Amino acid sequence: MSYQEERFIAELAVQRATLFTQKVFFEKAKGTVSKDDKSPVTIGDFGAQALILQAIRKNFPGDEIVAEEEASSLRENKELSAEIWEQVKDIKLQDVEGDSLLGGPIPSEQAMLDLIDQGKSAGGPKGRIWALDPIDGTKGFLRGGQYAVCLALIEDGDVKVGAIGCPNLPVDDSATLSVGIGAHQAESSGNGVLFSTVKGTGAFSRPLTNGSLAASKPISMRPVPDITHAVFCEGVEAAHSSQSDNAAVAERLGITNPSVRLDSQAKYCSIARGAGDIYLRLPVKKNYQEKIWDHAAGDLLVREAGGQVTDIYGHRLDFSKGRTLATNTGVVAAPKAIQDQVIDAVKFVLKL
Ligand SMILES: Nc1ncnc2c1ncn2[C@@H]1O[C@H](COP(=O)(O)O)[C@@H](OP(=O)(O)O)[C@H]1O
Ligand SMILES: [Mg+2]
Ligand SMILES: [Mg+2]
Ligand SMILES: [Mg+2]
What is the pTM of this model? Predict the structure, then answer.
């Protein structure tokens, strides 16, 4: 199977949802509510999920979907639901054919809520399962930093297709990243990248547009002949990944370059295009299980760009265990040639 149709729909759906998130990004009030686990969700997360699930349901009605958000809190919060609908109802690509391929405008507020609730699959080892993170890095989104719209197709536990929209990453692969990117910078025309990949075909990027897809170009990780010159990409939120253990691993490897800190799967995207080399996500809480939607697309993108992605023990991420990576702990992503060296340093620091 070539997955060309899946890839095209995924790219276009992510592009349209990203347009929506950008609109919310520049609003002062983002309709933030706190979920049961105390993490934030916004108008941007809910709306992007509705738009992408509409596109999947229209084009691949038999597939299952594992998505991060659900609509129960919105059904009780009529005001927020109405606000989201107000923002979602007019979203369309300036490409009539493409927009109708995705299902055109969502017909009603009720239809929007029902779409948001279409992502409750339990996941697992069999069949075609889409994994969606409508906004990854919601805290970055709220801070005015990096965030990403992430979609992957998993078939029989194996990631086959990935598409990631990063509205605040520079189009230029080698541009230096500013982490505390403000609304002013984010609005500049040089930002907004759509990454995509199909297993066995390499990794690609293109500028995000508000219409049809721009031309894509292949990307790859950069060679690291001397590991002491490598650059880490790591998270901003200290509660999601241990920054002190990360620093200890860097020291063990002799790396003195400062880390590039950014929220979301923009970290996978950055190392996949050679704007950084190593991404470590070292556990903070002992029993935290990583979510499949936080990693599926990025895992394939990095591997297709010449990297390896494992957990802290060196085991490949296993997307067949349900909604979480239940058998993995943490993430270590690096160019293939140096991955073993990085794992050795991680094991040393974490005393594994
Ligand atoms: N204790 C924890 N350890 C690791 N990841 C966590 C976590 N608590 C929340 N997360 C996840 O971290 C993601 C953001 O990652 P990062 O810090 O790399 O930007 C969040 O995605 P969302 O923003 O989609 O909720 C959330 O799923
Ligand atoms: Mg979240
Ligand atoms: Mg996420
Ligand atoms: Mg999210």
Answer: 0.97
Q: Tens digit of pLDDT for each residue in 118-145?
A: 999 999 999 999 999 999 999 999 999 9
User: Contact 170/269 with Cβ under 8 angstroms?
Assistant: no
Compute the distance between CA of residue 318 and CA of residue 296 in angstroms, rounded to an integer: 9
What is the mean predicted confidence (pLDDT) over 16-22?
A: 97
Mutate to test the pocket of ligand 1, among 69, 294, 302 (most ligand atoms within 8 A of CB): 294
The architecture that CATH gives domain 227-350 is 3-Layer(aba) Sandwich (3.40)
Task: Report the length, in residues, of the chain.
Answer: 352
Span(s) in the chain for CATH 3.30.540.10: 4-219
Average pLDDT of the chain to the nearest whole number? 95
Query: Three-class SS of residue 161?
Result: strand
What atom of ligand 1 comes closest to residue 133's alpha carbon? 24
Q: What residue's CA is closest to ligand 1, atom 12? A: 240
CATH classification number, 4-219, choose in 3.30.1950.10, 2.60.40.10, 3.30.540.10, 3.90.226.10: 3.30.540.10
